[in-house]
Amino acid sequence: MALEIKPLEQFEIQRIVPLHIGGMDVSFTNSALMMTIVVIAITVLTVFATRRAALVPGRWQSVAELSYEFVADMIDTNAGHGAQVFFPFVFTLFMFILFSNLFGLVPYSFTITSHIIVTFALALVVFVGVTIVGIAKHGTHFLRLFVPEGVPVVLLVLLVPIELLSYFIRPFTLSIRLFANMLAGHTMLGIFGGFAASIGFLAIFPVGINILLVGLELLVAALQAYVFAILTCLYLRDALHLH
Amino acid sequence: MSDAGPPELERLSEQLDRVRARNTGSKPAASAGDPALQQGVGVGLRIGIEFVVSVVVATGLGWALDHWLGTRPWGMIILFFLGVAAGMVSVYRAVAGINTAVGFRRPDQETGKKPQDAKDDGE
After folding, report:
1. Is B54 on the interface with A (CB under 8 A)?
2. Is the pLDDT score of A4 beyond 70?
3. pLDDT at residue A26, as a whole number
4. Nearest-CA residue of chain B relative to A238?
5. Do B65 and B58 touch, CB atoms closer than 8 A?
6. What does the buried/exposed string (b/e) look like for A213-234 if buried means 16 or more CB atoms within 10 Å of the residue's CB?
7. What local confidence, expressed as pLDDT, does residue B5 receive?
């Protein structure tokens, strides 16, 4: 009666409250539950921790202020001036992904960002939003983004498709990076956890590895949120400051 | 500033000074909180996947176009090479911007346009 190792079971979507409206499955799933928890946690942190703002901040107020300053700094250095308007958007993205990643590491919870449809939707919002910002600010002049400066006309035939392609690939790289990192990390944790369950007292080794891996996953969780946010800033900069 | 503040703030700043003085002596060369290290790991994770995804997505797009337009196998072949080129361009840009302002364009190309940008933002 060997235990089966099912490292991918943790990514299964389960319907908590089945709900069908107009032929569409809009059930409240474990993914939706985690999203709700994440949003509530962020709201509690940012609203309630700073409600009684003290000159010398307490622990929670410090966390809220640190995250605010971190994102504000990131936008300043990476998106250039005039980009602070987009602070709410970048801050929301960063906090949502960071909390999703971190809460996903809690045993028996669910990692929202390990599903490509979620990360792709986020990346698509960034992509479409940045394109709209660029067009709204520069009009048709925005298309110059795809035409490198000081290049012979003959080469443009080759370079414009490359530029176009590298622009339209952005949502894919953005979403796959986050999703793949989360999926790989959690699968690894699942595999070693499965080992531990099936080999008796030797389990101390896979558990030891898992302890180290959780440390690594904490780093990855924070870094991937950071990378997602910083790339959003860079894309915004492209759209705001054309060459 | 410490002169004007209320007594509790003064005490706090004294305390902070003491802690700071204690910490300056024994700072590890590259702790986990080192911003340069953090940025380095971030960039590494970022560009690792850039190239692969470019090639895969472009080739997939070519395959889909072939399927749709019936031009098999040309779309896939051409878009594969375009994908490789686009991937290299993305990786080059990501690496070229590491020590400068991290970006799509190198900052020295932008400096000429800075005043105009400032005017644009004023709108």
Report:
1. yes
2. no
3. 86
4. B104
5. no
6. beeebeebbbbbbbbbbbbbbb
7. 60
> Quick check: B57 and A169 CB within 8 A?
yes
Residue (of B26, B2, B27, B28) closest to B15 by Cα position: B2
Span A153-174, pLDDT tens digits: 898 888 899 888 988 999 999 9
Residues 6+ apart with CB under 8 A from B32: A219, B38
Cross-chain Cβ contact B45/A223 below 8 Å: yes
Both structure tokens of A230: 């910083």
Residues within 8 A of B (CB atoms), A 139-158 only: 149
* Distance set, CA B19 to CA A57, A118, B12 (Å): 18, 44, 11
Chain B contact set for A226 (CB, 8 A): 38, 42
What's residue A18's pLDDT? 87
CB contact under 8 A, B82 and A227: no
Is this complex's ipTM strictly greater than 0.85?
Answer: no
Sequential DSSP letters for A46-59 = IIITTTT--SS--H
Task: Please report, to the nearest 10 degrees, the dihedral formed by the alpha carbons of residues A218, A222, A225, A227 taken in order.
Answer: -110
* pLDDT tens for each residue of A93-123: 999 999 999 999 998 899 999 999 999 999 9
Nearest chain A residue to B51 by CA distance is: A173
Mean pLDDT value of segment A14-34: 88
